[in-house]
Amino acid sequence: MADLVARIAELWRYPVKSCAGEAVHTLELDGAGRPEGDRGWGVVDAASELTWMGAQPRLALVVARLVAGGLQLQAQGRVLAVAGNGGEAVAFRAWNGEHQRFDTWQGWDAGDDAAALLRATTGERLRLVRLGTEARQSLAPNPLHLVGDGSLRAWREALAEPLNRPAERTRANLLLHAEDGSELPPFIEDILIDARISGGPTLHLTSPCVRCVVPTVDPASGKPQPEALDALTRLSAERAPGSAVQFGVYASGSGAGQLSVGDRVELTLNFGE
């Protein structure tokens, strides 16, 4: 029996790491429980290193969507189609925080048109790179990011000024609300053990989501707002004193399956002793 029943309020997919994602009605999970089409591309800087929104906040203004045959980028009033195969093979480096070193990975360059759009948006010499399978799995080790809508409300209320588009800032794959459409209790996901999707897979908690500067970036302007992270830091210290800043949780699917907006989700929670 479930401790709490929720429903999927929103689903998001992020075809390009550190670029804006796309809201979707359905998210397919592969045999490893990973969302298909999520973070299959990355952005590499002039030093051939994988960059991120913390270093390039204006990447938040580049909207990436999966389309038939590849990828669509939208920024600066332009829409660019990018082929989902081919391209020049390239090697790039990415920081490995666990081992405190750079690892080298293989990818395929998406071409000069994509690079020109990234430069027009950010002002920097950046390249769009399609990632190899091994690189995708290593660079996105946590398959799914989940947050409850009550936590978003707590974040908004912790700020003196309104927070623009908080759900997008979290870069969550799943946003949950209560079964009747009302808000869940704030930070209920912190005590999640698993989430059983009606007619679909089970999502097992893997770890809390440790937050960095990315949620400070305004999706509408591409400008950091440090007060957004200050609020997350205060909220996290109240729940987990002495720990890193936490907001949302990571989960892994039990295998292949489908998630859809409106799906019933049975939550098993750890209430402690």
Describe it for me?
The chain is of the alpha+beta class and 273 residues long. It folds into two domains: 4-35 and 142-269, M1 Pyruvate Kinase, Domain 3, CATH 2.40.33; 41-139, no CATH class. The chain is built from five helices and 17 strands. The chain has a seven-stranded mixed β-barrel. The protein has a four-stranded antiparallel sheet with strand order 4-10-9-8. The chain has a three-stranded antiparallel sheet with strand order 5-6-7, with helices on one face. A hairpin with a 2-residue loop joins strand 5 (63-67) and strand 6 (70-75). The two termini are 19 Å apart.
Features:
single chain; 273 residues; alpha+beta; M1 Pyruvate Kinase, Domain 3; 7-stranded mixed barrel; 4-stranded antiparallel β-sheet; 5 helices; globular
What does this entry show, briefly?
With 273 residues, this protein is of the alpha+beta class.
Helix residue percentage: 10-25%
Q: How many domains in all?
A: 2
User: Tell me, what is the CATH class of the largest domain?
Assistant: Mainly Beta
Question: Major β-sheet, in short?
Answer: 7 strands, mixed, barrel
Shape type: globular
Structure summary, number of beta strands:
17
Structural class assignment: alpha+beta
Give the DSSP E fraction (strand runs of 2 or more residues): 35-45%
By CATH, the architecture of the largest domain is named Beta Barrel
Q: Spatial order of the strands in the main sheet?
A: 1-12-11-15-14-13-17
CATH level-4 homologous superfamily of the largest domain? PK beta-barrel domain-like
Alpha carbon gyration radius:
18 Å
**Termini Cα gap:** 19 Å
Pattern of helices and strands: EEEEEEEEEHEHEHHEEEHEEE
Low-confidence stretches: none
Mean of the pLDDT scores?
95
Q: Which fold name fills CATH's third level, the topology of the largest domain?
A: M1 Pyruvate Kinase, Domain 3
